[in-house]
Amino acid sequence: MVSLNSFEACRLLYNNPVANESDGILFRSRLLSTARRMGFSDGRRQNMALVAAELVSNQVKHAQGKGLLQIWQQAGPALDLVALDFGPGIPNLVLAQQDGFSTANTLGKGLGSIRRLSDESAVYSVQPREDSKSKWHGSLFWVRFCLSGRSGVKKDAEIPGVFGKKIRLGLFFRALAEDRYNGDRVYMSQDNGRLRWLHLDGLGHGRGAHESVENLAGCLIRGDTPAAVLMQADRQLVSTRGAVAISCAVNIAGKSVELTGVGDMSTHFYTAEELQNMTFAPGVLGKEHQTPQSATLTFEKRCTVMTASDGIRRNWKYESFPGLFNQHPQVIAYLLGNIMGRASDDQSLCIVNIE
After folding, report:
1. Confidence band (pLDDT; 50, 70, 90) for 184?
2. Domain 167-354 CATH (choose: 2.40.37.10, 3.60.40.10, 3.30.70.1230, 3.40.50.10860)
3. Helix locations, the chain, DSSP H
4. What is the pLDDT of residues 334-352, one digit of tens each?
5. Backbone dihedral region of 77: left (phi > 0), alpha (psi from -120 to 50 degrees) or beta?
6. Which end of the chain is less enclosed by CB atoms within 10 A, N or C?
7. pTM of the prediction?
8. What architecture does CATH give domain 2-146?
9. Contact present, 62 and 88 (Cβ < 8 Å)
10. Per-domain residue ranges for the chain?
């Protein structure tokens, strides 16, 4: 059973910079109209408006005019708010999230209220360092409202109706120039104790690339192993532009990850505080390519697997984002997607955390 199609599940609905309080008016208007369309109750929309006001206020006070606000629709369905800035960062996150703490002579209830009013939330922050070559310092605030949820539910709850409690998912899919067509795609399924996905990047961009990767969900049904899934995709892509792809299978009980790929995409495997980076055999599915080689990785307690198209730059350093891979995978996706995405291509990240 195919449980997720990224084109339907993950959509960027709003993306604008914020420099003053007036910039928040459009943000809140778009948020509330989207929430109404999705079916959120009046009370939930009021909570969203309060959270949105806190995010805007925080960026105006602390981000030095270098921030942006985003609204995303995600699987669940869920509505995500993202506030990303290039400011000085937060010196003490634990203290900052306590009621009554303030560095701007205010009541200091913002971060605590965000946590209480949402279904899930997280903050990730990096301060500038003299010895760092990182391209980014600042803060990212992630806030999620689930359509079937309510404020006060247990944090880090599973996405309703998608996967179980041991699996957390992060998606980032953004088309070149905000085009309606996106040549990057993920199909995902869960069956018999395994989570499997096929991450594709159609050659080029626009409508042709988008159409190349449509209707490939059946490859997960017809292929039992990652190599077999790629073989099915290879056959189906012959009459198209072609695509590069990664196929992954996580055996949850067996604590193992099997993966294979073809073309210019990358995988990152994080466990036991170590990050392994992998690339794949050159070529294009549906055209010419070398025989893909499969790899099997194991983990003991938890792991995070990230697959990325070449729309995400690879020259980022793990050390530049301390503790990032211990965050919720959606935080990882939003940060790396926004910071390391190429403006000249479709961009996509699929991040899965298994515990």
Report:
1. very high
2. 3.60.40.10
3. 6-9, 23-38, 42-62, 93-96, 110-117, 206-212, 218-222, 226-236, 329-340
4. 999 999 999 999 999 999 9
5. beta
6. N
7. 0.92
8. 2-Layer Sandwich (3.30)
9. yes
10. 2-146, 167-354
